[in-house]
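Page 47, continued from p. 46.
Same chain as before, 293 aa.
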Amino acid sequence: MSKQHNSIRGIWAMLMAVCLFSLMDAGLKWLSPHYPALQVTAMRAIASLPFVIVYIFLRGSAASLFAIRWPLHILRGVLGISMLALFTYGLKSLPLSEAYSLFFIAPLLITALSVPMLKEKVGAARWIAILVGLSGVLIVLRPGTENLDSLGSLAVLAAAVCYSVSAISVRLISRTDSSDSMVFWAMMMIAIGAGCMAAPDWRPIEHRHLMVLAGIGLTGFFGQVAITAAFQKGEASVIAPFEYSALALGLGLDWLLWKTLPDAIALLGALVIVASGLYLIKKEKVHAEAEHP
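Result:
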């Protein structure tokens, strides 16, 4: 199969993953006014866990689940709980599209964190792109206005930091542990950890929300399968830019479900962040080609 054909299949898989994760996030936003953020986090993991278990046994990879580096998996579990709880809390007050705009700072943070955590070298051009991306965050937040005081906005930014550190930990874990073990233990630790922390304030799940929970479980699981397939089939530098299509989907879901849209200034900040991320992806490709001509 040609490289171009693989890239096209990878792009379609990424677009499918973005659609599925956007629908999952819409479900999280739908539940966020009715349950504490930690409970929503636990329910999200519990809803996906049965699909993950069946998938692993069908693949015959259950034996790899315990041959892992436990400290890194525990760290990733803690980061996963924090990220989901903070993001869910942010969705309670923010439109999906604005939350995505702020969360898109994560690729820039991953590049910055790769210096102290992975001892990678980041050139001046990429540092400039990171600073430009941070300026986009300031445009979205608008210092001196009520936006900067929004706990929802700050929660999404904190979620992006947790995600970035988790992504770095995945790079370390993947050197020795299987991808199936990473997915399984992430879901298991989030389900148990967030469930225990949410238990004192746990609210009974309303029957009208059971279908939403089932949808979150399905879209979360199949979204993970699709994004894994995307990066397996195509080059990261070709596939990754399509992740930013989540902004358009977020805008559509905001309008269809909640009849709300971010203002022009927030959209401008989002475009600055996205442009910085796309530039970094391009530089990563050039850097990789220079190292492996």
